[in-house]
Structure formats: structure tokens, C-alpha cells
Amino acid sequence: MSKPIYTSAAEAEAAFYDALARSDLEAMMTVWSEDEDVVCIHPGGPRIVGLAGVRETWRQMFAGGARLVIRITQQVVCANMMQTVHNVFEHIAAEDDDQLGPPIVATNVYARGATGWRMVMHHASPTPDMAELASHGTPRVVH
After folding, report:
1. Coil, strand, or helix at residue 3?
2. For residue 39, what are the domain limits?
3. Which of 5, 14, 110, 138 lies most in the core, judged by the most C-beta atoms within 10 Å?
4. Is residue 140, in this structure, part of any structural domain at all?
């Protein structure tokens, strides 16, 4: 099976979220760059570096075959001719669940190469509880 050529980062991102929604490992891996310096961080998980490790984390995630509903909001895009960064809120629920979960903030980085646009990094984290942050009076700054 030959990999599709994504002509824009937006097209690659649409394919990424479609593969995620369908728990389709092969479709997911067509989005990723084949370079060994790819990085993936799932919410609450460790940093995974390298294509084999990234593939294995998605394989484990998709093993149950769950179908998801994913709604992307509040996209912020920073782009140039060779690299694009998308920061989004992912609202995810199981296909048979009426309630979307709390948003996950995700940063997706795409690089343009000879085979079109490919993902080189996906970093997703749970959003903080804003009510708890507000009760402390000052924002928590990590760095």
C-alpha cells in the first residue's frame, strides 16, 4: 500500500483525526513521517521517540477497536513553507456516548517533505481544572 501524499498540513491533520476516530492503525501511520526523530506524547504518558515506538503506542491504543467521536475546537496555527504547528482542543467521546469528555489540549507538528506533509510530533495533555486554578488566585507557572 503506497502512502497518500498530503498536499497540506490541514489535509494531514484531517487524516490523523479520521484514523484516530476509526482506531485505524495503518491509516494513522500513513500520516506520520518515516523519520526516526518523530515524537508522540499521549495524555499522562511518557515521551515516545522513534517511529517503531510511536507505532506501538497507537497499536496498543487501538487494540480494542473503539470508535470515537472527536470534535476539534480553538485551533491556533503557526505556519511557514516547510513546517506547520497546530494547537487544538480535542473533545473526545466513545461513539456510543452522548457526552464529550473534558478537552485535551494537543499540539501537532507537520513537516513538508518529498512525500508531502507528514506529522513529526503529537503532544496531548489534559487541560487543567480552571475552577481549581481560579481558586488559588494566581496562575501556576511551570516554566
Report:
1. coil
2. 9-135
3. 110
4. no
